[in-house]
Specification:
Layout: E1 3-7, E2 10-12, E3 18-25, E4 34-39, E5 45-51, E6 58-60, E7 68-73, E8 78-83, E9 92-98, E10 102-103, E11 107-111
Parallel strand pairs: 2-11
Antiparallel strand pairs: 1-3, 3-8, 4-5, 4-9, 5-6, 7-8, 9-10, 9-11
Amino acid sequence: EVQLVESGGGLVQPGGSLRLSCAASGFTFNRYGMTWVRRAPGKGLEWVSDIDGGGSRTSYADSVKGRFTISVDNALNTLYLQMNSLKPEDTAVYYCTLVYDYWGQGTQVTVSS
């Protein structure tokens, strides 16, 4: 059974940093690309970032490029999203997903002074 469990969200001031984690189990982690998406209050899902199964290719939404970094630790079966220079508009529930078929429960990120 595929399981994805996010953690690391919280309240942070503008300009601050957070690192989100997504612990994965139930599949061969290093064979699949993973994705971070987010849902801001009152808005639809927004794609944030992708990484391929080997962890060598990444892509980012323009809104986060240069501030967020996606990575994986294949030994720990864990996906990360390092978020720096956070802005109030980054406030959202962040989800990791495996091929958009499997989803974690989400972790809340709130950027506010």
